[in-house]
Sequence to fold (975 residues):
Amino acid sequence: MIPELGHGALIFALIVALVQALLPSYGLIRGDRRAIASATSAAHAQFALVLLSYLCLSWAFYANDFSVAYVAQNSHSELPLMYRLAAVWGAHEGSLMLWMLMLSGWTLAVARYHHRLPADVAAIVLATLGAVSTAFMLFILFTSNPFERLFPAAVEGRDLNPLLQDPGLVFHPPMLYLGYVGFSVAFAFAIAALVTGRLDTAWARWTRPWTTAAWLCLTIGITLGSWWAYHELGWGGWWFWDPVENASFMPWLVGTALIHSLAVTEKRGLFKSWTVLLAILAFALSLLGTFLVRSGVLVSVHAFASDPARGVFILGFMTLLIGSALLLYAWRAPKLATDAPMRMYSREGFLLLNNVFLTAAAAAVFIGTLYPLFADALNAGKVSVGPPYFNAVFAPLTLPLAFLVGLAAVVPWKRGDWRESLRRLRGIAVAAVVVGALLPWAVYDRASLGACLGTGLAVWAMLGAVHEIWRRARSGHGISSITPAIWGMSLAHVGLGVFVLGVTIVSSYSLERDVRLGPGEETELSGYRFRFDGVVESQGPNYVADTGTIRISRNDREIAVLHPEKRLYRVQRNVMTDADVDHSPIRDLYASLGEPLTDDPSGEWALRLYYKPMMRLVWGGASLMAIGGLLAIADRRYRTVSAAQRKAVAALAGARA
Amino acid sequence: MTRMGLSAAMIAGLWMGAMTSAWALEPEQQARYQSLVHQLRCLVCQNQSIAESNADLANDLREQVRTQIEAGRSDQEILDYMSDRYGDFVLYKPPLERKTIVLWVGPFLILLLAAFIAWRSGRRTAKSEPSAPDQERLRRLLERENP
Amino acid sequence: MRYLIPIALVIVLVGFLAVGLKLDPRKVPSPLVGKPMPAFSLPSLDGSRTIDDAALRGRPLLINYWASWCRPCLEEHPLMMQLAARSDVNIVGINYKDSRADAQRWLARHGNPFGEIAQDVEGAAGLDWGVYGVPETFVIDAGGSIVYKQIGPMTVHDWQTEVAPRLGVRP
Fold:
């Protein structure tokens, strides 16, 4: 019964979404105020129905209802509860339900904010979101129904892919989807700007917090994914330039450009058509990501079961949504163009340059990811594009960003003076060069140009961001005048510097060693002694494991004990590696079991050991960026709406109508 | 094949397959070995290098790499050996040739293009801003002090 | 009309993606097409003699890499049996990474379409031929050069459109 209830709820949700898309649009054309206002009620109803549907699916997992085909394929009665509930989004159909839950959630959030927007803008935003919801629900109901029954019901499920049976699964996809889907709000606001022909400071102010919120969720989602892969996959890698990873990274890069472009539009009323275009592009890349993961056009570790038929459907509605948006753009964007004069040596000039690099970086990832498809489609043969390409191309396009971050912090709006900038940054520049040149030598005894350059730029970015705070604190109004938005911005930029430092050091100074050790034998890596204490068999809830013990000591003092495992999951008969890591702020020590070298598991084993310096800075930096984003949206100017502001907004809307 | 699109073979392959033979090499040979196995694609897996996969074929290819390093072949000779048999697709790093020119040069072209477009946008002379007085009013009402 | 550029680019992209939906990104074409077949010298499956490439030159034939543990090989097997029954088609099998007993049992159970069978236990010959999965079928011309590689099980359609014309026989 419950699956049918879920199915029915989804069908009703589709109808509501269609109403949400059409009725306000009709209302706007006819000037019917009630039709316009129906958008918010529809948004509430849609969320309630989608939530109900999602909960019904979750219940099926909770109750081990193997008469539902999707549950039978992705769950098992021995699966721990946490993973049973997370398994809802473990495969294609359920992940779309998660997408819908997020989309209706964001729609609800916007609907609750609607009184701060002019009625027509709110209506268009909600109608656009309704259209996107309609497209996705049609897709689910027609091609990817998670509620399909299995006759006869399976006695037992096929179990969740063991790779996914890790805490990372519980958090990574929801955060990722929150981000992905959140860009639909920026998209909807862009459509509203194009339709109404009004794109002004107010519009930028409304759009910014939504975009920043989506961006920070995506930042966290990507970071979690990387962290998860690091722990789960067993060979110390944390980013693989896999097509699906790239599919989430491209919207992030464009989203970052969008945030910066919105800042300029809000402050100076410039870059209007660019901002709109970036908003459409960010969401388009989210949709493209959805397509790439599910259609089978690219080969990826992450891909859901590929089904070209589904691919056709997604491609179809993606073309419809984005095509309509871009046609609207071609028609209406010329009216938005402001042409206040802009000097290149100004904050807005540097933000423009910043966006140039971010867009080029996104283009690089895009070209690299899709090139195999382009080449194959043009009959130019099979081309393989992997990490060596991305690493080579991406670094030169993004390191300049670290430089710009530090520089732009001291360049004022409208008009800057390079001599003044030089004066202010002299100290920081010297510090960055000195630390960049010396730190690698001092800490790691050897240095490469890349390591010095990366370190120097990272220090420059961090100091530049801190300098901004210091400068404002010292100016007339003191530290209390610094708004959360400024704190957020500086923290995010510091985070960028930290991230660059982490990546530079880890890439330059990681050490790995494959060794063969018997119980009691030791080896040395980078000043740490690793002693292998053999392997014992242990039992997990749904697996059998060989658990190894490795004792790490330094200077004859034991500092850590690691327990890497080799797990055999009973149902799918897969062997999984679970590495173990000793973390510290300045280095990770990482151990993985390979295989027993004799038939006796208590004998010698092949092991892989890693020394990864500054690994935590990679995720620490990304986390700082996300926290910075959180601070930025917490700024009061987005939250309090005074009576005067409300009147002004209403008056403006009235004057335009 | 499971419906997840991760074949059972690949999942089983997520050991550190490279370890099966690498420990037998001298340190600088190990370094070459590691570098080479990260540059070769596993053809049966979904987007992994042979270093990361423990599919049978990946095992075989790794053994080949190890044997050839021990036999004194150069890195380029080993890579050529692989691409002679499996085509350029087995090389993770696409070679620079006519058909990959767009791939390698593209991003930098786009960078230059974007920079050019940006520079031109910035240079356009002022036109009158639409609804400037209204915008001013709204801006003053909505904005707090702007440091 | 620069505002039309984004939509134009999207249309081009969608075109590529649409074409991409029909392609299989997992299929890797062989660089050996057009080249003489790689040399090999393998024991026959029954162990009685050695089969090498030189002996196989002189007539067009199909070389089929197969294994008893390979499920898709069963899919193409009925077609293989049909082709084997024809006098104008010769199929040489190379048993890949398999045990003799398993291979012989498989043939006894399902039928033997092969004129001759070589045994590549270690996969060494497979490496030289660029084999990365089974089944794979190579079309060899009379001069001993590879003219086509069939990746995966051969369907009737593949036989009719790609293989038969290259063998010079009617489909």
